[in-house]
Amino acid sequence: MDRVWELRSEFAEGLWATLWLAGAGLVIGGLLGLIIGTGLYVSRQRGIVPSRPVSVVLNVLVNFMRPIPFILLAIALQPISRYFGISGIGNGHALVAIVFASAFGISRIVEQNLVAVDPGVLEAARAMGASRWRVIWSVLLPEALGPLILGFTYALVAIVDMTAIVGVVGADSLGKVALTYGLKQFDWTVTAVAILLVILIVQIGQFAGNAAARKVMRR
Amino acid sequence: MSLIELKGVSKTFPPTRKGGEPVHAVRDVDLSIESGEIVGIVGYSGAGKSTLVRLVNALEPTTSGSLLVDGTDLTTLRERQLQKVRLDIGMIFQQFNLLGSRTVWGNVAYPLEVAKVPKAEQQQRISDLLHFVGLADKAHAWPEELSGGQKQRVGIARALATSPKILLADEATSALDPETTVDVLRLLKKVNAELGITIVVITHEMEVVKSIADRVVVMEEGRVVEHGDVFDIFSRPAHPATQRFVATLVDDVPDAAALEALRRRHPGRLVTLSFLDESVSQSAVFAELIRRGIEFELVFGGIEDVRGRTFGHLTVELRGDASAVDEAIAAVGALVETREVA
């Protein structure tokens, strides 16, 4: 435990990096995932804006990206970060990788939740003169809000998982603390403390997500 | 000019799977609906009535034919223009389709937001509408806190928000219990009488048609097979489909099983008298039988009231001298429609 105390500033830095990487990853990746997922849903056959080409392109893209193991994706995306002037090592690139992976992952969660919205309600909105675009933002997304919040909460756990993995591309997250001072120095206690901190973050996130969903769904 | 006018309207859906058959949901329908009337469209499920009504507010584009609403041919309009037309056509649904993400108030506000009505005006309008449908005390309730009848009232208030000329009711009472159905139909009548709104009611329940429609349109396999005044349809249904529908409500003529049972108890001649025209009174017919010394007994039948006009079918057993009965049947036949049964 003395060792953990010695490493307190490293832990603090790791905790902070994990929090902001996960937070920024959830917000930016979530927003992109929401856009892609909504696109997947509305472009379906008999959807709000049916379009076979859009549907096929989005589905192929999502299906291409999603199976890539995140640790490989984090490495494979380095040239792309560099192209945009971001170092391939460090927090900047880590965020790029997290946003990329979470956007495609979340898009499927979004699509699933939108499919569950009663089509009759969408039809009612159209019958009231709403444009397709208005139906999407003023009916479709609000109607699915509760399940979407639960879906995003689920995604948060996966994103926190990613923040640990990006330790291999030099992000200062708790994952890096565990790798550098736990794994490589054979210090099991350091690893365990890092894990506990990650669990704590996930618990708080899940709790907040459940509370928000309950409030929105009124049950 | 009619408020709604369909000429040769057809709607064909593409096959649902590759190599499948296209679905002809509506076939070559001609129909005029006048301003201020309540029209009932009846048919079994799959008859095309739901599709037909969705052509009227252009939720589905018409495949061929012309469809005029208030003088505008909807088949020539773009989506943006159709959105304006839809503000003039309210719609209510079997499953109510209230927005679960909004309160009662928010649901009624929705079409007003779409129509870009100023906030202050919205408040007044929503309050008026909720009073009109009798739900002022539920303004801040959530849809799931309401009963079916209350939900449909919200649906009606919402459909009326933009002061439409037309209200389309798609099986609006089919998910309600009989008592609530009566309440909702009463409200629809009030909408028609007080606001002068033309109502198109789609239903498979003849009760609904009988209680509120002025005119009936019967559909089968995408076609209009019969239409006419509600009294005429009920008293003289011509098409087999219409007859089946009317029989669900009017069972004044004994069917084969009932007849067999009657026969066992009544050895005399059984004749069904159909009073389809109010100018013939029953007393005139009975007086004729009495005058001829024919013994008679009422064995089956009923009198129906359709929107204040009555018609009925009465089956009587006639006893007496064979030739006298023959003559009596002929004499009565001159007054009313008679049909000797079995």
Q: How big is the Rg of chain A?
A: 20 Å
Query: How many separate structural domains of chain B?
Result: 2
CATH topology grouping of chain A: MetI-like fold
Strand content of chain B: 25-35%
What fraction of the residues of chain A are assigned to beta strands by DSSP?
under 5%
Order of strands side by side in the largest beta sheet of chain B?
6-7-8-3-9-10
Over the alpha carbons, how many angstroms does the gyration radius of chain B reach?
Answer: 25 Å
First-last Cα distance of chain A: 43 Å
Estimate the global geometry of chain A from the Cα principal axes: elongated
**Count of beta strands of chain A:** 0
| CATH class bucket of chain A | Mainly Alpha
Low-confidence stretches of chain A: none
In angstroms, what separates the terminal alpha carbons of chain B?
Answer: 49 Å
Structural class of chain A: mainly alpha
Describe it for me?
The complex is a heterodimer of chains A (219) and B (342). Chain A is mostly helical. Chain A has a single domain, classed as MetI-like (MetI-like fold, Orthogonal Bundle). Chain A is 79% helix and 0% strand. In chain A, helix 2 (8-42) runs parallel beside helix 11 (188-217) and helix 7 packs antiparallel against helix 8 (132-143). The longest helix of chain A is centred in the first third of the chain and has 35 residues, at 8-42. The radius of gyration of chain A is 20 Å and the shape is elongated. With 342 residues, chain B is an alpha/beta fold. Chain B has two domains: 4-88 and 164-247, P-loop containing nucleotide triphosphate hydrolases (Rossmann fold, 3-Layer(aba) Sandwich), CATH 3.40.50; 256-340, Alpha-Beta Plaits (2-Layer Sandwich), CATH 3.30.70.260. Chain B contains twelve helices and 14 strands. In chain B, the strands form three sheets. In chain B, strands 6-7-8-3-9-10 form a six-stranded mixed beta sheet, with helices on both faces. A four-stranded antiparallel beta sheet of chain B has the order 2-1-4-5, covered by helices on one side. Chain B has a four-stranded antiparallel beta sheet with strand order 12-13-11-14.
